[in-house]
Prior knowledge:
Rossmann fold; N-(1-d-carboxylethyl)-l-norvaline Dehydrogenase, domain 2; 3 domains; 17 helices
Amino acid sequence: MEGIARFNTVGIVGDETCMLSPAPRGTSSSLLTPYNISNFHLPLSPFHIDIITLFLSLFLSVLFVVVFIFVFMAPAQELQHDQQAPPPSDEAPYKSRVTIVGSGNWGSVASKLIASNTLRLNSFHDEVRMWVYEEILPSGEKLTEVINRTNENVKYLPGIKLGRNVVADPDLENAVKDANMLVFVTPHQFMEGICGRLVGKVRGDVEAISLIKGMEVKMEGPCMISTLISQQLGLNCCVLMGANIANEIAVEKFSEATVGYRVDRDIAEKWVQLFSTPFFIVTAVQDVEGVELCGTLKNVVAIAAGFVDGLEMGNNTKAAIMRIGLREMKAFSKLLFSSVKDTTFFESCGVADLITTCLGGRNRKVAEAFAKNGGKRSFDELEAEMLQGQKLQGVSTAKEVYEVLSHRGWLDLFPLFATVHEISIGRLPPSAIVEHSERKPKFSLADGSI
Ligand SMILES: NC(=O)c1ccc[n+]([C@@H]2O[C@H](COP(=O)([O-])OP(=O)(O)OC[C@H]3O[C@@H](n4cnc5c(N)ncnc54)[C@H](O)[C@@H]3O)[C@@H](O)[C@H]2O)c1
Ligand SMILES: O=P(O)(O)OC[C@H](O)CO
């Protein structure tokens, strides 16, 4: 604009010069400078000539600058703009670009599922970027370099090829910058820090989904991880939960999952499309909080089931603990969010996830070892020894749920949830899981009301 305005100013100066009249024939050249241009005789004094010369040189200089900018600078500016503007210029605008934020056990399997679909479906760019929290392996190599060389996450999912179109990237900002579909799948305790690093770094049109089972408790109250992501990054976030033990899906054993969405069914369908395979069946329901709370709270029940296994109390006791746990899951979810639907508890994210976790999950396994050791070895110690870098979610979730219960005066209403935390911190012995959980809550929790 500045260039155009200057150009107009130059034009006006030019017009003014054209207003000089031709010198009348026979006019004496001694009075007027003989300034002949063809048959024009301009009756100008030296002062006028100086002014005109000044204006002309000004005009020519400005013209030169404008031409210089257009010829030499504009292409450079265009190039710079192209580099910043998403999506990159080498792709059709309708193709979605997917980045996975996280590369643990489930994060790696999610990358494998997604990578098989982005190759197959035209609406997605082939490449799937996977942010990796960089680690140095015992061999001295960087985990990202090994993943990119071998196409395998040798630490968190050994023996499984992820797909050649998965690119491991240790730089979080670089990994997300071009994506318009972000999949969050890290242990929940790292998400606050990760979101903090991503503020202002994601595309304006980005959609997100969280596969993370967990919650945060803030001064204002409980905050689901999808809400944390939505609020911190200013984007819409769906969730995907289900009976999904990652190692089983990695070897393509049949499983189901549930996508929870808030409003936009089309977005939910796009996520369903991105994850679905013949052995991984995904269904969408309009209940983000219900789906996410199922995935989050079942980990607390799994710890209780692990205590029962460690104490060798048998299947009936374990089934009883699962039933009481499911009742508390439903009541707690509905007390926090009245919108939570009963039907959600019958989806894969509900009762199916509860069953698989209480039978074969990591939370159950480590809790069993905790009980076998009479609570003498801490969860942290057992987790490090038994999971080699993978993380439990149930112990910290039990603590977070306990904070909500004590803050709201609900401890007596949720004896199983409260007891799991008290055993985990050594306040009660593992055997308390049955004695305390079987206590009848003071009020009916059947419909989630107090
Ligand atoms: N593994 C499963 O079977 C499974 C299935 C469904 C859902 N989930 C859920 O998915 C989420 C992620 O689980 P996962 O199994 O992929 O992870 P994981 O348990 O394998 O966790 C390890 C991951 O945490 C990363 N990490 C370690 N320190 C970190 C730090 N300071 N900052 C950021 N990252 C760090 C590691 O690099 C690694 O990628 C959890 O909420 C879990 O409950 C897991
Ligand atoms: O191994 P866990 O206990 O973390 O559970 C894994 C998944 O959440 C099961 O769906």
